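Please decode residue identities from the backbone states below.
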């Protein structure tokens, strides 16, 4: 059978109980040892008192001996748990109480020896004793006072039982309390999971309810809600993109179908068929171009495009682009000029940036009137390198400026399409600039003319700190 990890509340309770058990066990052991030590110390104090009071019962007799003055003391024989034994210096017993008679005789200490405590066992009873010497009427005697440890051991044993039985009981109670507490603390998570399960792909606009925005669960919920918002935005973008792409792909397909249908309707001359096939191929080229661009964008989105950044001279790149587009500008009698007073370098992927610049300059040619001028200005601005494409076209109205970099956005669809536009040129340009660590923006004067500005991190020139 596979082991299934228990729920957080069970694990929490388990750990909590274990730690509590260990802490209480250490605490209980320390308490037990301290109490036991204290009890035994008290017993020794009592023995010491017994020793001192017993000295008062020893009296010298007229015949030069020492006697036990029983009449001055209650009979210790009555006391089962206490004993007194006294020996003369030669080992002759002077007095032995009933309770301690079973204890072995004492090994006589030297007269100067310090009093000593020891534990003895007799008839399965344990005794604590204090043995010492004392002088009575100038004679040395050895005295041993003893007390049974039975009662004390019984008391200590009771304490041990209470501690040993109480410990599991306390831990069990704490575990129940801990479990209830953990359940209460984790209930909002169950609630959250239940709510989150409700939000499927087609209900992404819904959000989780936040009971308390200041606690941990509230903050977690806010993060999950943010994720839903981002997911929703991405879904929406994807949905729009798919709809736009399908629309764009359908137009050339409809045209191809239309040409085919018209061609098949009547018998045509070979030249007419050739014409029809030529038009179809033009639309196929358009389709191929669109699909290639879409693919490039999707690679860009997936981040699978591998860049090879290298320091490049932006003025040289601008000249290269104008040379490749010169033929298009010539057709419109437009002047394409590169203004670069100083060499400016940026570390970028050459081909990707070239594509961005080509798209922007191509737009300037497409949308500017015949006979106008287009300038590409290369300059440095602190640690930034700037490429500005300035045209004398119709300009871009303020309300469109924020959207012209969006995929498939066209201000005038018919005009763009007539000029071979797909509505993706600036979207690609923005991706190509941003992937190189730059930014692209547009400015337009009310009188017309647009300036597309590409700003890139500038490479430091030799010996220069940028
Ligand atoms: P398109 O393929 O239509 O050119 P783009 O993404 O390149 O698509 O451009 C989006 C729209 O921005 C164009 O349809 C056009 O209306 C407008 N636009 C782009 N560049 C210029 C420009 N230099 N002058 C005026 N309008 C422009």
């Amino acid at each position: 059978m596979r082991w299934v990890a228990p729920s957080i509340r069970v694990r929490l309770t388990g750990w909590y109980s274990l730690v509590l058990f260990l802490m209480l066990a250490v605490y209980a052991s320390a308490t037990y040892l301290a109490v036991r030590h204290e009890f035994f110390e008290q017993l020794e104090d009592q023995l010491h008192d017994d020793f001192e009071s017993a000295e008062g019962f020893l009296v010298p007799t007229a015949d030069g001996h020492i006697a036990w003055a029983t009449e001055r003391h209650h009979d210790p024989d009555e006391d089962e748990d206490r004993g007194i034994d006294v020996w003369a210096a030669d080992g002759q017993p002077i007095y032995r109480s009933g309770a301690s008679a079973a204890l072995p005789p004492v090994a006589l200490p030297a007269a100067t020896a310090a009093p000593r405590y020891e534990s003895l066992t007799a008839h399965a009873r344990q005794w604590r004793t204090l043995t010492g010497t004392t002088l009575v009427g100038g004679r040395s005697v050895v005295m041993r006072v003893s007390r049974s440890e039975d009662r004390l051991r019984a008391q200590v044993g009771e304490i041990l039982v209470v501690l040993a039985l109480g410990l599991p009981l306390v831990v069990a109670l704490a575990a129940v309390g801990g479990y209830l507490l953990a359940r209460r603390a984790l209930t909002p998570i169950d609630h959250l999971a239940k709510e989150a399960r409700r939000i499927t792909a087609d209900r992404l606009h819904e959000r989780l309810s936040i009971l308390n925005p200041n606690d941990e669960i509230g903050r977690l919920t806010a993060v999950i809600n943010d994720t839903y918002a981002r997911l929703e935005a991405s879904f929406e973008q994807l949905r729009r993109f798919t709809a736009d792409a399908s629309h764009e792909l359908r137009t050339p397909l409809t045209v191809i179908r239309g040409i085919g249908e018209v061609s098949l309707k009547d018998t045509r001359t070979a030249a007419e068929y050739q014409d029809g096939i030529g038009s179809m191929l033009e639309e196929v080229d358009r389709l191929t171009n669109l699909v290639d661009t879409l693919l490039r964008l999707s690679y860009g989105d997936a981040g699978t495009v591998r860049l090879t950044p290298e320091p490049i001279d932006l003025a040289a790149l601008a000249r290269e682009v104008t040379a490749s587009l010169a033929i298009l500008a010539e057709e419109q009698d437009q002047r394409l000029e590169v203004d670069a007073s100083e060499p400016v370098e940026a570390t970028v992927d050459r081909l990707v940036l070239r594509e961005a610049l080509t798209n922007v300059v191509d737009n300037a040619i497409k949308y500017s009137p015949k006979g106008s001028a287009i300038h590409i200005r290369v300059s440095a601005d602190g640690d930034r390198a700037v490429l500005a494409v300035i045209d004398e076209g119709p300009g871009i109205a303020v309300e469109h400026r924020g959207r012209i970099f969006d995929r498939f956005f066209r201000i005038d669809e018919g005009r763009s399409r007539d000029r071979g536009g797909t509505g993706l040129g600036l979207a690609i340009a923005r991706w190509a600039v941003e992937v190189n660590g730059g930014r692209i923006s547009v400015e337009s004067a009310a009188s017309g003319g647009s300036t597309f500005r590409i700003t890139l991190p500038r490479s430091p020139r030799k010996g220069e700190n940028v």
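Observation: The mean pLDDT is 89.
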